[in-house]
Amino acid sequence: MANGEQPQDANTVKEAGNAAFKAGQFQEALRLYSSAFSLTSSDQPKERLAILKNEAACYLKLQDYDNCVKVTTQALDLSPNDPKAMFRRCQALEALNRIDEAYKDALLVAHAEPKDGNVQETVMRLHRTLQELSKKQASTEQRVTEMMKMFGPDVKDVEKRRQAASNLIVLARDKAGAEKLMERKIPEQFVKFLKDPSLDKEVRLSLVRALGELFKGDVTRCRELLRKRIGLPPLLNLYSVDNDEVVTAVSVAVENVIRTLSGWIDKEKPDRKMIQENQDDIDHTMESLVSLSDRAVLSAVGRDAVIDLILKNIQENLSPGLGWTYQFMERDGIQKFLNVAVYQPGGSDSDLLVTNETRVHIALALQKIYDDLDSDKKRNIFKEKCEQFVSLRLNDADPKAKIRAVLAVTALLQGPFDVGNFLLGTKGILELLLAMASSDDANQQLVAAEAMVHAASKKDKCAAILGDGLPLLKKLAQSPNDNVQVRALVGLCKVGSSGGIDASNRPLSKEMMEKLADACRKFLLNASKDFDLRRWAAEGLAYLTLDADVKESLIADRPALRSLIDLGRTGNQNVIYGVVSVFANLCNAYEKPEVVPEMKELAKFAKQHVPVEHQKDSPEFIAQRIAVLVDEGIGSSLVAVSKSESKNIRELISRVFNGIVENKDHRGMMVQQGAAKVLIKLALDGTPAGKEQASQALARIGISINPEIAFPGQRSAEVVRPLLNLLDVDKGALQNFEGLLALTNLAQLSESVRQRIVKDGGLAKVEHYLYEEHEMLKRAATECVCNLMLSPDLQDLYINVESDRIKLLVLYCGDEDPAVARAASGALAMLSQDPKACEKIIKPNSWLEIMKESSMSDDVELRVRILFILGNLIKLSDDAAKAIANSELLEILMATVQLKGVANEKSKSLALAALRAALKKQLIAPNPDLMIAEEEEEEE
User: Fold this and answer.
1) Per the domain annotation, does 400 fall within a domain?
2) 135-159 average pLDDT score
3) Model-level pTM?
């Protein structure tokens, strides 16, 4: 122990926990209770019992019912009949839907506390619930029987069988239904039906979805299905089916296995402890997926789904995951993925089946795996495995093997670029590319052109990489083969865009840039609507539209713009980069380097090049371009491409959305097209800049659009955290302000939303801005507190916890800003209905003067609120009533009663009520002229 530091006492720490609990700081209270418990010993059962019961109360508030059951059980081990511990366990068990156990506890509590009405009501409610469950179980048995009859050999009615299969999904989602299906060994029958090749497609889909529901949520059931009942193969075998819906349903089912075993269902990240407990089953599932990835039996869509499923779950450092990245490498995952990347769509029967998107899926997966590795040693292993794969094919005499080596490097250039660039420079790949580009074989030209395009992805390496390849690209751009031509065009577009947004730095002439843009727009509108040509054209424009002249020519070409937006609506992984980049360029939504004026002048003095912004990138031009994009329906396209796994792409999407909704006239259209739902996801997962941009876009929507429309249902709770993330000292004042305004509107929605704001630490964040010198921030924060004060829990916190919160509200009632005064008086009016609050209101020495000034305000709304407060002070506080009666406030009340006009009716009524309260306390005499005696007569 440090010198001078006093030993901590368990009771002192517990009392600190109690204070934190009363303040609504439940996590802090838990920490303190845990510390207090550690300071007790086994010979202090009473002290330990009290602490455990307090922990249980915290867990109930946090809705962490599993831990509540755990600590209350510990408490009951110390005192088996403690009513409070047992009742709290009963509440948690009920919330966990363990009704029979909750009922047993409730009966024991009722026996110990027979006069407790709350306990008696709980017993009756649980008894009714048990009766309903009993009836439901009997009904479920009958339903299962009836549904399974529809699968008998004598049933020929396909529609009835489809309906029965669909009903099984609903049944599997229900706990009692799932238990009945397991009891009747229905999953085994599902597997038997799925093996029948003649099974109706819709029925097959419903059965897979039902299995997915059975695997979800319940660890015991999930493990039983995996180990003893059906295993994974019946599901994984369905990845051979060439049907998007079936394959998606299989992926959902397998992901339910992974998420259930890792405690990841409906949570932001997996549970480390659960992963350890279920490690063998998790490893078996992931190994099965990795092993399956390059199997010839898979359909093309099935292969993409397997790759994506692996990617979504293995990571650890970049995003929550299983921490399986290194194991993926150890189990030859890199070789298997590259083995898929070297195949092309429409190959021979002996080739692996792939889609146009497969290589992009592989590239993205390899990029994330590489980024997730947490040491240079592991990254070197990654690089060595890629090098071994490429070298093996380069050393093969078969020309097809060399082409596959190039395709593997192309995939790496699209993903972990540094690894691909390393191989490009050390394995003679660049020379091979030039030779392939010079050949007469169209397929070799196509492969070479695509590799050269991706090799030039980094602007700083563009010139060096394309130094020898530029003449060949120009030659290939004249190819009669459209697929070769469009790829070569993209390479030339990259050269043309290497100057970025600097209008004074054009590597290609204006005429050449216009020709390239015209060629790209031609391919975008090609008569055959060839998807591959259109997506390459979009990628070419992604580079060209860094130039403001090209932006304006594209925005003027409505057919080309519509084709681009339609391309985005497909959500195809191959188009996402090109489409989103064009949108970002048109909206100038990219990150711009900050240019300090002094440094700019210094650069000029030193005769260094200074970037110049194009006049067509001024705010007026940007606003006009955005208006055209909104008119053409960009919102639905952005929603479709937001499914990208790339955090950099999602950041660009967030930037575009934020740029669009900066204009309030566009916000309603974005909400109609699904922007709010997408932005919540973007705000919670992505790069720091991307999350910030998405959060600001949500705030802007929340300011202008009724929250009930913008964020319906559960979304109103989900948007709270993104908005609170804007309340940060490191964010700009505009973001702080917009976040506060959106939270103010949101706080009006419901009590559950207000509690969510407080639970997520929102109160402390909002209150921070009450002390801001920035007038707009202070105003927004005060208005937010006013709306939050609709919550009884928050009122209780202000009234019963010792702090200067109420004092600050009193002072703000006299603020020079009328909006601040109105908001503070609104919050105070709600609090003033409690006697304790009234005693706190009169603590500031200046309260009488503030009330006097505000009660005479020209602002009718402020005056009404102050008069309401004065009436409550007189009714509920003798000290306040005497002080008011002996001050100028009494004369003000009497003068207010005599005001004329409709606008003053509310003020007159409240002033009259206050005077009657003073009369009742005999602080003033009856006054017939002012009608201060009629209340009793009216009551009679």
Assistant:
1) no
2) 79
3) 0.74
